[in-house]
Amino acid sequence: MSIENTYQAQQAFFVSGATLPYAYRRKQLKLLKKVVKRYERRIMAALHADLHKPPMEAFGSEVGLVYGEIKYCLHNLKRWMRPEPVSSPFMLYPSQSKIHRAPLGQTLIIGPWNYPFSLVITPLIGAIAGGNCAILKPSELAPHTAAVIANLVHETFAPAYVTVIDGEGSEVIPALMQHRFDHVFFTGSTSVGKKILEMAAPHLTPVTLELGGKSPCVVDDKVDIQVAAQRIIWGKYFNAGQTCIAPDYVLVHAKVKEALIAAMKKAITSYYGDNPAASKDYARIINKKRFDTLNSYLSKGTILHGGDTDAANLYIGPTLIENAAIDDEIFGPILPIMTYEHLGDAIQYIKQHPAPLSLYVFTKRSSTEKTLIEQLSFGGACVNNTLGHYTNVELPFGGVGYSGMGQYHGKYNFLTFTHAKAVMKTGTWLDVKLKYPPYRGLGLLKRFMK
């Protein structure tokens, strides 16, 4: 089916009202969960073929998160759909006010290659829960996973409701966005996000952009060094550093720099052995283009640990580097380490790369935690941890400024894919004449409104 025919079919299906009932949405979510379970092995195999993802990482960050989102949504959807009563001004008595969450309509979800399953299916859960139709565009850079998603969706849903469009993103996405969608959800790079926003602007289409940025990791001098090192290394090298919320660089207090580096080296060896290339728990770089970009960063500083590469196998080992001048988001297994003497200096450095997607703080000082959270702009944060905030379905996830706009996960997923309708109902048994011309009672009006 062509893009034009698919778009027209989804438009007609949405207008029919078929997606509106709670029972319909719940049924589709249960169908989605059922088919994901049936495809689970194929999904895991595809993730390994595309990124060499270890089973633990693949299930935990892709399949398991999808199960959790669906379960949470099924448990809460009826309550989310219920009109929310709010108060009404006394001046409008007798009136009742409510907020109704209405479906947006036709949605477009564009996925990335680094988490090619969950970052397509999780927003789809929100679109279904919100009562919308959806066109999915998985990343062609993760072709095995994209093929599994296409098969899974085509087996489960009618194309007039949910479907997948394949092809090169540079060709397919502009063709799709010649049409007016009611919402576009994009996960990917900032540069492509800007283009998505430009294409959406002529249609006044609202857009959710989940981007990235240089997420800092600040390590105070009053800290549990071993715990900090273990959690930083785990968060950085999960999926070989190809995570939008991975620590992009470490700012460590000069007093504990050497101790932290030693502990991080120990953690790398503990996790991946003396030869990480042989580890079953370490992923690979997505393609040759990304490998070459990351490989070029290795010459921009002093390597403290790692730095080993294998182009044929798209392997770059877990690497610690200092004195590095890397302005771009690294998005790979290279971790620059810098020092600071005063917290204010660290804050000023972070502000040179504004509004990261995530902030990580390791400290035993509540004052350090408070200062960083209050003075810095970021999407989300962890104190004495990394990545964990993303997995909490109760927390909104999204960026700010150059790291994106809009939020999702849990209830926020539902809110993103619905519109808040304001509705006021006024009784007819009382009709105050003061509001009608000829006007009188200005003094009384002032008393109420002041």
TrEMBL record:
<keyword id="KW-0520">NAD</keyword>
<dbReference type="GO" id="GO:0006081">
    <property type="term" value="P:aldehyde metabolic process"/>
</dbReference>
<dbReference type="InterPro" id="IPR016160">
    <property type="entry name" value="Ald_DH_CS_CYS"/>
</dbReference>
<dbReference type="InterPro" id="IPR012394">
    <property type="entry name" value="Aldehyde_DH_NAD(P)"/>
</dbReference>
<feature type="active site">
    <location>
        <position position="210"/>
    </location>
</feature>
<dbReference type="InterPro" id="IPR016162">
    <property type="entry name" value="Ald_DH_N"/>
</dbReference>
<dbReference type="GO" id="GO:0005737">
    <property type="term" value="C:cytoplasm"/>
</dbReference>
<dbReference type="InterPro" id="IPR016163">
    <property type="entry name" value="Ald_DH_C"/>
</dbReference>
<dbReference type="InterPro" id="IPR015590">
    <property type="entry name" value="Aldehyde_DH_dom"/>
</dbReference>
<dbReference type="InterPro" id="IPR029510">
    <property type="entry name" value="Ald_DH_CS_GLU"/>
</dbReference>
<dbReference type="InterPro" id="IPR016161">
    <property type="entry name" value="Ald_DH/histidinol_DH"/>
</dbReference>
<keyword id="KW-0560">Oxidoreductase</keyword>
<feature type="active site">
    <location>
        <position position="244"/>
    </location>
</feature>
<protein>
    <recommendedName>
        <fullName>Aldehyde dehydrogenase</fullName>
    </recommendedName>
</protein>
<feature type="domain" description="Aldehyde dehydrogenase">
    <location>
        <begin position="8"/>
        <end position="423"/>
    </location>
</feature>
<comment type="similarity">
    <text>Belongs to the aldehyde dehydrogenase family.</text>
</comment>
<dbReference type="GO" id="GO:0004029">
    <property type="term" value="F:aldehyde dehydrogenase (NAD+) activity"/>
</dbReference>
<dbReference type="Pfam" id="PF00171">
    <property type="entry name" value="Aldedh"/>
</dbReference>
